[in-house]
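In response to reviewer comment 3 from the previous cycle, which asked for concrete evidence that the modeling workflow produces usable outputs, we include below a single protein chain processed end to end. The sequence was submitted unchanged, and the resulting structure tokens are shown without manual editing.
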Amino acid sequence: MKIIIYFFLSFLLISCQPKTVETHGGLIVDIEITDDASNESKINSALDIFKKRIENIFENNPQVILSTDKKSIQLKFPLVTDSTLVKDFVVRKGQFKTIETYNVKEIYGYLDEINSKLAEDHNYQYQIPVDISKDSGKNELQKNLSEIEKETIIKNKFSLFTILNPNISSDGSLADGPAIGISMLKDTALVDSIFRDKKFSSLLPNDFECKWSRYSQNKFVWLIALKKPGNKNVITSEMIADAKTVKGEFTDNLEVNFILKPEYVHLWTEMTRNNINRSLAILIDDDVFSYPKVVSEIVGGNSSITGQFIEVEAKALAMILKYGPIPVDFKIKGITKL
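The workflow returned the following structure tokens.
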């Protein structure tokens, strides 16, 4: 009995010990400044924004350190172990944008035409296109497809809908909203290449573009139909006055509440009025974080971003909106353990 009690007390004492870097580690993120046009003012602003972000999200004295040559930044996160969280929600440019969307019912005819051309044009025998533009990193996947896989695609009359399952409701009709369809993560590069191919992009409306949802479900991800905003019908980071996390009105889920600067409230009112019963897409650095449906016009410039956020994700998103995007271009060189 005494042995059992002693073991229990020992376990309790050990479990109550404060966490330290020695026992729980942390993360170091090394960032390279890639913006040739950056100057001292922009770099200092970037340091300040990073500092405000991480100090409002994490405890335990996170640090922001500029290299002596002012070409790189190091971020230290004591006791933080989730590198995906840091990369996806904290160490990112943070450009916020809200734009209009297409309803999948409005564009399905165009998609069906692309699908038919891919499946039926034997003379064309669609070969997997390779996008060599600077932002085509995803397309490394398609470059590496074996010849057997390529022959199989042609033999089976490769089509768009073999890799992008249309958003069909339970009754067999097209679902409502901007979600075009769902693909496996491994197929997203191939879908992107099809929509970039001039043979097929010319069939789509001039203001059509599509981007992937930020969230994946068991290696599947949704493709969202957007409208290129041009110089209108868009709310951006520069228009936001403040942001914070709040509990949802009808659920316990955390939401990110943002308030627009007074001079932009009328734009938001007009945008929501013109899109009642339609969805508006909320993007951070071109990742679609959500696409809520507008039920009525919003007149006060006060709105919330909903999603299945854990607390630290919601805090991070609020800080991105509150302090704005990082004013220099950068890339993550590496993430290591403390």
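The mean pLDDT is 83. We consider this sufficient to address the reviewer's concern, and the full set will be provided in the supplementary archive.
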